[in-house]
Design goal:
The protein has 346 residues and is an alpha+beta fold. The protein contains 6 helices and 13 strands.
Length: 346
Amino acid sequence: MVPNRRAFTLVELLVVIAIIGILIALLLPAVQAAREAARRSQCANNLKQIGLALLNYEDAFKTLPPSVVYGCPGDRTTATAEIPYHHTWITRILPFLEQQALYDQMDPLRPAWDVAAGAPMSFARIRLDSLLCPSDYGLTQPGTATHGTAVTCYAGCEGGYGWEYSFSFSTSSTVAQRYPELGGRETAGIFAPTFTCRLAAVTDGTSNTIMVGEVFSRGYEGTPTLYTCGNGKPIDSDSRAYTRSAFVGVPLPGNSTSFFTNAGIVNPDGSAVGTLFWKTGAAILAPTFVGRYGANSYWPGAHGSHPGIVNVGLADGSTHAISETIDWGAWCKLCARADGCPLAEF
């Protein structure tokens, strides 16, 4: 005689399914948080390697690289027009990032942009994972939206206004009224176009000065207020993106136009720098950020892909996660290399 076997009733089965569903719902946030923590750690490690590469470069050449080299090398014995070559600080440190093979493809005396083809040179199209934040979900693949250029999620800190090697806020400026200690102080950062900076010039101390910061590959949008942090959000459209090219240095238009035109600096294809961005659609920027815009606030500044923070690498080679709620004055001091102002814990 076959013994009776008690099977699950429909109600019991539904209860088990419901319990499993609740357990999954409870576990998913923990799993996602663990994954984000791992990505955040990898991002910090990328910054660490970039920072060490910059310090090794400085040790070898006794100076840090300029943000962009816009010069026009060539045969100066003839009247033939010379073409710009627009290499960025990242191309300079490739050998120190274990990218000697890629560096060997780059001729520093030839342009980073192929004018005839209307596209970046082959080396400037190569995507490097070490230059990308693993949490970045934007324009990390070279393509139409990036105008063919490989992008980076890490930008050198220009501080100040972003295109001058030396800059200070007037003692009568709005900044000085709110932060009197910054009035008349040097607020430029480590990087500047065509200029180089020695570590000896970082008189605020290498452990108090941002050298490289994280940037979301599409940029941030928000109210372009200069004296706030954390009031922006990631741009969600490729067509409105402000992306940093890893290897093609592009002059910034607008208020800086006269600075570039007076210096004879042109766009990568030889066209004059104007009041509009060089390319239509998504804008291509040099791999730098402007320190006067607070963390996670607006596209010219530093902004991350991690909730509530932006990762930075200091000039001593260390990395830190800076809260987006940091006081703007403290952020500005961190971005400056020689303001001489006391800096509280950050």
